[in-house]
Write a structure and sequence with these properties.
Layout: H1 8-27, H2 30-65, H3 78-82, E1 91-97, E2 102-103, H4 109-113, H5 127-137, H6 143-147, H7 153-159, E3 160-161, E4 166-167, H8 173-184, H9 187-202, H10 209-216, H11 220-223, E5 227-228, E6 233-234, H12 240-247, H13 257-268, H14 275-282, H15 290-293, E7 294-295, E8 300-307, E9 310-319, E10 328-337
Parallel strand pairs: 2-3, 4-5, 6-7
Antiparallel strand pairs: 1-8, 8-9, 9-10
Length: 338
């Protein structure tokens, strides 16, 4: 993992302090000099706090990467116990799965039209409205701003996210086309890709890892891993409502979906589920598309480190790999709140 960087705000404050100090010397104003020195001291303290928060966040990400069971993520993993290791130094650390929710940028119409998840939309809003918004305005991680008029306010925070990979088997086709166009800048190529993707759907083919490179073609380097075929939701952290409704999708033909959801919820409280165990709880064949939705790995995490009144929010992505043995993480965002 790359080193976490200080926020730009600290640099600006330090530069301002230096400017004030130079002005004070030139003017011989003692009170201004005193104020500048005080400002510099505060800036130094803030920078020290920032670095301490960043070091703690990096510690947590390294723990994620050292998971002894990297093929699955759950609350029994060592990282959860070690979040409290530095409480004596004043750190309070929270770890959140931010990808095992409905991604407002990717979610298919059927998910919202054919299940009770439609109730998460604002009155009068439809799944088609959501699709059209993405087409008109693009993709965004700022859900309240871009989708707040379409999705209920209380639902955005609990059930939706803007973080996650686009699974080629389960993402809305026009969202895939939009993502292709954004990543490559090739609108004509996006249309060609869309046609190839539709041909695969017509053949009712579920893409596997080995198919991704062929489908993405010469733009694979620009599109992967943003597009892949990894299961989207980690059943260890998914909201029970989303889990139950996904299992109830009629097209998937899951036998006893409510019972399957109950079994998963009960098991995850005390067990780390493997994909094999998950298939046993659901009871559907291994090639069922439900396993494109439901898996046991978290792809995007948020680490929140608090010390006193200062907070650092770090969002990291796990990079997909063929072996699932040596997970790698990449820092996407760092947000410091003094």
């Amino acid at each position: 993992m790359r080193a976490l960087k200080p926020c730009d705000g600290s640099t600006s404050i330090a530069a301002l302090a230096l400017l004030l100090l130079m002005t004070a010397v030139a003017m011989g104003e003692a009170f201004l000099l005193q104020g500048a020195l005080s400002y510099t001291a505060r800036s130094t303290r803030r920078q020290e706090v920032e670095f301490s928060l960043q070091a703690e966040a990096e510690r947590v990400v390294k723990l994620l990467a050292r998971d002894p069971t990297p093929g699955a993520d759950c609350i029994q993993d060592p990282v959860w116990e070690k979040l409290r290791d530095n409480v004596a130094q004043g750190f309070v650390v929270t770890l959140q799965d931010v990808s095992s929710r409905l991604n407002a940028n990717w979610v298919q119409k059927d998910i919202l039209q054919k299940t009770a998840l439609a109730d998460l939309l604002q009155p009068g809003s439809t799944a088609q409205d959501l699709r059209q918004r993405r087409e008109d305005k693009g993709l965004s991680t700022d859900l309240p701003r871009e989708y707040g008029d379409l999705i209920r306010k209380e639902a955005i925070a609990r059930y939706f996210t803007g973080y996650g990979y686009a699974n080629l088997n389960t993402t809305d086709e026009f969202a895939l086309r939009k993502l292709y166009s954004i990543r490559t800048g090739d609108h004509a190529g996006a249309e060609v890709f869309h046609t190839r993707w539709q041909d695969g759907v017509t053949q009712k083919k579920t893409l596997k890892r080995g198919d991704v490179k062929d489908l993405l073609g010469q733009d694979y380097a620009e599109l992967y891993p943003f597009m892949n075929v990894e299961p989207t939701f980690n059943v260890h952290f998914i909201e029970p409502l989303i889990l139950a409704e996904l299992l109830s999708l009629s097209d998937l033909k899951i036998q006893h979906p409510a019972l399957a959801a109950q079994r998963i919820i009960e098991a995850r409280d005390h067990l780390e589920l493997t994909m094999g165990a998950l298939q046993g709880l659901i009871g559907a064949a291994g090639d069922n598309r439900i396993y494109q939705y439901l898996g046991v790995v978290t792809w995007f995490w948020r680490v929140i480190v608090v010390r006193g009144s200062a907070q650092l929010h770090v969002t990291v992505a796990r990079i997909p790999s063929d072996d699932d043995v040596s997970p790698r993480f990449s820092v996407l965002e760092e947000r410091y709140l003094p």
